[in-house]
Design brief:
single chain; Rossmann fold; alpha/beta; 573 residues; Carboxypeptidase; EC 3.4.16.-; signal; Ser_caboxypep_ser_AS; disordered C terminus; 3-stranded mixed beta sheet
């Protein structure tokens, strides 16, 4: 979300650089039919976040609720839970009649007495790495299916529907944002019933990702969103902790639903999840290879949207992107790089090679914090210049096409108001916990992880049949497509040469309508793909819901991303 970005000085300055959204790029710098490598003619960089302030109004208080069976002893407002495993407890989301507006198709299904209601549940998972009371909140939405988006869930009519795990970035931002604003089954709207106590209700979305698979949202690291701990020392500082927590949660989740244990699993997320997704996917991959855990996770793929994955390469692309979209001149971009880039790259290398360790910890995080505080000079300088070029008007770092209106550039207030309603609190069973869009303390604890490079975790998975998809809205500045394209081009793996030489192909959404949703580069065997989404910023499913849904559907069905046909991309070099 928002943050403050400062560097310099003898003491550590707060660097609150929330990675949640992205900005858009003009078609002049990304043209179908020419190699992506032609965009590499200039090496330029830009900073991450402007000096945003935390919005205290995002703090919401939740009261108790009544659930199904076993009453817990925790300070949860007297919620009754079903104990699914020794560490996993859950309750059904039971909203009052009229608080969910369904499509005509689901209304008909719901009225059929022979139909089994879709499972929509919320729950908590107790972490076992601490002696304190620490719990991660999650929401599960059963596969809605129906229509063209489903096709039985998988290629060839396979019965096993994919399970899609989603993690919002930040670090420290709640996945409820994605669930109710991006790719969940419902969106929040104003209630037209003036006699109702609830001012906001849910409306079924047409392009929610639950039309493609079972959808699972987790608030992580612990203390994010509705997740909580009785001792803040349990908050994560690195991806090793994050990936272990999620791995342990998935073990119990599938133990509680053995009917889903063999289903294809896809790890997805956006923004700072460019760190989370490779770490979590690799943890699951290694565990399956070594027969670790009670459940052998059937990892089939991972997808990262507008992510921060290889910071050294991505910081080096800020200026190039800024010049490409016209917010700074070529000379201005070159000046910023000349001033900051070389030192930034040196500090990033020291962060990633300290004692040969990949993950941050108390002994190595200092150099990583020094790296992010220095490297932030690049985006901050570019944003300052861009604002001056616009007569003092700040750039919307999440979508360069739009003005930044309000504290967050996006208006999520309806979601907050909906979550604060008594009926919603009861449906989710969140007790008396406070909910906030993004937790600053969690964010600060992860700063030693920021400049870590997680691209090296990806090749081993690709070489062993796990598919990867990197997508980015073209108008996002903060995690722009240029930087993401650069690291995917440079990644060392057996398919690198083919991928680097590929021309982009149109992302055809509807051939009859002549509708394309962007451009795609994909290896012939479909193992790895890069998608630049047109008319979208940092939150692609929010800006282009149908495009995002179709992109996911093709990905989990092992179809050509560009055309929807069988196999990987067939574009000529």
């Amino acid at each position: 979300m928002r943050g403050r970005g400062r560097s310099g000085g003898k003491s550590r300055k707060k660097t609150l650089l929330f990675l949640l959204f992205l900005a858009s790029v003009s078609s002049s710098v990304f043209v179908s039919g020419r190699p992506y490598s032609s965009y590499d003619e200039k090496e330029d960089v830009v900073d991450l976040f402007p000096d945003f302030e935390r919005n205290e109004r995002d703090l919401l208080v939740f009261a108790g609720a009544v659930g199904e069976s076993k009453k817990t002893d925790d300070d949860d407002g007297g919620v009754l839970w079903t104990q699914k495993t020794s560490r996993l407890r859950e309750k059904s989301m039971a909203f009052p009649p009229g608080n969910i507006i369904f499509s005509d198709e689901e209304k008909e299904t719901a009225s059929n007495t022979n139909a089994t209601p879709l499972e929509r549940a919320a729950g908590y998972f107790k972490l076992n790495r601490t002696t304190h009371d620490a719990h991660m909140f999650y929401m599960f939405f059963e596969h809605r299916g129906g229509g063209e988006a489903s096709k039985g869930g998988r290629k060839g009519g396979e019965e096993k529907v994919p399970v899609v795990l989603w993690m919002t970035g930040g670090p420290g931002c709640s996945s409820e944002l994605a669930a109710f604003a991006e790719n969940g089954p419902f969106e929040v709207i104003e209630n037209k019933d003036e006699n109702s106590e609830d001012k906001y209700v849910l409306k079924e979305t047409k392009y929610g990702w639950d039309t493609v698979g079972h959808l699972l949202y987790v608030d992580q690291p612990v203390n994010t969103g509705f997740s909580w701990t009785s001792d803040n020392t349990d908050e994560a500082r690195d991806e090793e902790t994050v990936s272990n927590d999620i791995f342990e949660f998935l073990q119990d989740f599938f133990l509680s639903r053995p009917e889903l244990a063999d289903n294809p699993l896809f790890i997805t997320g956006e923004s700072y999840a460019g760190h989370y997704v490779p770490a979590v996917a690799h943890r699951a991959f290694v565990a399956s290879k070594n027969d670790e855990g009670s459940v052998n996770l059937n990892l089939k793929g991972f997808a990262i949207g507008n992510g921060l994955t290889d910071p050294e390469i991505q910081y080096a692309a800020y200026a190039k992107y800024s010049v490409g979209v016209g917010i700074v001149t070529a000379l201005q971009g070159e000046d910023v790089n000349a001033k900051y880039l070389e030192t930034c790259e040196k500090k990033a290398k020291k962060c990633n090679n300290e004692n040969g360790k990949r993950y941050s910890n108390a002994t190595v995080s200092k150099k990583c914090i020094e790296a992010v505080e220095y490297c932030q000079n690049i985006p901050n300088a570019l944003l300052q210049i861009a604002a001056e070029n616009k007569g003092g008007k700040p750039i919307n770092v999440y979508d360069v096409r739009k003005e930044c209106v309000g504290d967050l550039c996006y208006d999520f207030s309806p979601i907050g108001k909906f979550l604060n309603q008594k009926s919603t609190r009861e449906a989710l069973g969140v007790g008396n916990r406070k909910w906030e869009t993004c937790n600053m303390e969690v964010h600060e604890k992860m700063m030693g992880d920021w400049m870590r490079d997680y691209e090296p975790l990806i090749p081993e998975m690709l070489e062993n049949g796990v598919r990867g998809m990197i997508y980015a809205g073209e108008s996002d500045f903060i995690c722009n497509f240029a930087g993401n394209l650069d690291w995917t081009r440079k990644m060392e793996w057996s398919g690198r040469e083919e991928f680097a030489k590929k021309f982009s192909s149109p992302f055809v959404i509807d051939e009859e309508e002549g509708w394309t949703g962007g451009e795609v580069i994909e290896n012939d065997d479909g193992r790895f793909s890069f998608v630049k989404v047109s008319q979208a910023g940092h939150m692609v499913p929010l800006d282009q819901p149908r495009v995002a849904q179709e992109m996911l559907r093709r990905f989990v069905n092992e179809e050509n991303i560009a055309t929807g046909g069988e196999g990987g991309g067939k574009g000529e070099v």
